[in-house]
Input
Amino acid sequence: MYPVILTIHSFLRWMVILLGIWAVVSVLPSRQAAVSRAAALPGLLFSMVLDIQLLAGLLLYVVLSPITVAAMQDMAGTMKNGGWRYWTVEHPALMILAVAFAHIGRPRGAGAAPGKRAVIWYGLALLAILLATPWPFMPQGRPWVRW
Output
């Protein structure tokens, strides 16, 4: 089950990143005004796929990943080990923050300049995702595509 969920999680990464870029770009023209329904759709899809990604990540984190299961046994040792700390604390914390930012960014059309708020929050979500993604060139990196 672990390899299957890990592969799904890996492929969803690309969907999340592409939808995040689309969400930011779609609300750019409406920075000072209400966001149209058409411009809000990418943000909705971004939030939805990000939620699915979060569920897959939580399943890996809590149940399936041998790294986090072992790391939870000795948190003091985990915090001293950069690789284990990344997977146990840094990656999940930034990704949960990204989910929160994306949901805050979902434009509701209320208040002053909802489009501007959407750009900021979607941009912060995308930045957190890009920072927390285990790119291949990082010490804890993973392949570009997992088969």
Summary: The helical segments are 2-27, 37-64, 66-71, 75-80, 82-105, 114-132.
